[in-house]
Amino acid sequence: MNNVIEIVETGLKASGLDGLIVPGVCACIMGDISPGGCLNGNCNGAYKHMHSNGQDWITSLKKEAVTDADIEQCIAECS
Length: 79
Prior knowledge:
Blueprint: H1 4-14, E1 19-22, E2 26-29, E3 44-50, E4 57-60, H2 68-78
Antiparallel strand pairs: 1-2, 1-3, 3-4
């Protein structure tokens, strides 16, 4: 039997998405969906964007590529 997290991850993968985001509040990626137990109706499907350093990442509602500077700014604003 699938739990809610497995169902959500299956849906995300089928839709070509990488995780979830509540803009300005939180974000998570497949394999670590809702680590704080915050999964709720405010979550939106999101795309993962990796920094060229290979370590930092963000999720975004935008599928289009973002720059390293965009990722750095987002991380700074969320810290």
